Amino acid sequence: MVEKSLELTIGQVFSWLLTLTSPKDYQNLTYGFLAILEETPWIDIAVAYEIYIHDRRKPGESNVVREQLFRKFPLDITRNDQDDNNNLAALLDQNADLSLSSVDENGLYSWVIFLIKGSCGPDRAIYLTGEFNLDRLDLVDKLRAVYRNLVILHDSKERDVLTKLPNRQSLESRLLQVCAQYNNYQFIDIKNEKSSWLAILDIDHFKRVNDNYGHLYGDEVLLLFSQLMGKCFRYNDFLFRYGGEEFVVILNLTNQDQAIEIFNRFREVVAKYVFPSVGQVTVSIGVTRVDSNSMPTTQLDYADKALYYAKETGRNRVVLYEEMPVLSQNNIHNEIELF
Q1: 103, 138, 158 - which closes a domain
Q2: Is 261 annotated as catalytic?
Q3: Fewest 10 Å CB contacts: which of 3, 49, 228, 259?
Q4: Pair (119, 215) in one structural domain
């Protein structure tokens, strides 16, 4: 336990460093960082947020509205707490690395927000409540600097260089976390109850884009496609670049009909979008319900089979694995030209 005098022992310092440098991914790094903060006697609450910026145009208006969305870490995908999270925006000075409450009669701050910037991923914010004097703020800021450097390292490893989306390496751990949310929940009506849905999205005939226009324009299509994903899906959905022209979405808090409608809406947005020089492309989407009793590899295989079926039956469509013909689930023809 850290004493209020801030007289840290060498053992305490090395223990903190070990906690921060041992994790193999961003998720566990952040768990460890929050644990360090919460073990200090003058910090009551420590919460991490990811900050996402979206430019949206309201129906019937020409002006673009910039929205700032805060996603609490870890995200509870079984409830929609966007309004609660976005209350943080009222306290945060986006132009400063540090936002503070007013000083009380004892010369202490009751809350503080540290910004984490500079990585290839979203900005982060660390929200703390407790009793903070200048010495305590200085200590927390030094910890924040170490955490920031490690976030940058993890983001460079766990995010796609082109699109900045989490990469394939991040997908399995995230899918395991989503499954864990449903471990103690028994679905009665699978079709109508809100659940999570795993989808693999594949840009149709993407090889022709690279062959006809070059890889530079192909990369531009991939980047713009990922940006369309960011605009069409919600803050509590998870987006990934799976590899090549394939992307993955984990859609949360949605029933079956809504999930298919959402994916079809995105498919139509892509089909109508005019990509510079290339023109229009389409996307095929394979979907399956997230099942806490199945391994991530199995669920990805189901979504992949649904994707193959979408390709086999005309492309530019959404296919739900659970509604595929049983024979097709077991006998997908892999020789189809996917690219």
Answers
A1: 158
A2: no
A3: 3
A4: no
